[in-house]
Amino acid sequence: MAAPAAANHLLLTACIEEIAALRFTPAGLPAIDLRLDHASTQDEAGQTRQVKAALKAVAFGAVAERLARQALGSQWRFQGFLANPRNGKHPVLHVTDFQQD
């Protein structure tokens, strides 16, 4: 019997804090690197807490081309998955879609 597939799906509302210039992979695929900032109020163990998080993100293809046209400071709802870069210790959000929050 095959093991069930592990889920790795992230939904995050965040602002675009930094965005690099659109680049192309060696295979010619558009790619863009960005940093997202999140701030919210969350309930944890019956308490309300203020949460802030900064997260590196990357997007490829048509999503990268769409992100390249967005303004710094604009807020979006990002969908994607987490993965560690080859030589990195911290996970990066791979954005697969985004829409206005």
Automatic annotation (TrEMBL):
A GO term for molecular function: single-stranded DNA binding
InterPro entries reported in the protein's UniProt record: NA-bd_OB-fold (IPR012340), Primosome_PriB/ssb (IPR000424), Prisomal_replication_PriB (IPR023646)
Gene Ontology biological-process annotations: DNA replication, synthesis of primer
Top-rank lineage group of the source organism: Bacteria
Record keywords: DNA replication, DNA-binding, Primosome
GO CC, alphabetical: primosome complex
Matching Pfam families: SSB_1
Homology family: Belongs to the PriB family.
Subunit organization: Homodimer. Interacts with PriA and DnaT. Component of the replication restart primosome. Primosome assembly occurs via a 'hand-off' mechanism. PriA binds to replication forks, subsequently PriB then DnaT bind; DnaT then displaces ssDNA to generate the helicase loading substrate.
Its job: Involved in the restart of stalled replication forks, which reloads the replicative helicase on sites other than the origin of replication; the PriA-PriB pathway is the major replication restart pathway. During primosome assembly it facilitates complex formation between PriA and DnaT on DNA; stabilizes PriA on DNA. Stimulates the DNA unwinding activity of PriA helicase.
Protein name per UniProt: Replication restart protein PriB
Organism in which the protein naturally occurs: Pseudacidovorax intermedius
Lineage per the UniProt record: Bacteria, Pseudomonadati, Pseudomonadota, Betaproteobacteria, Burkholderiales
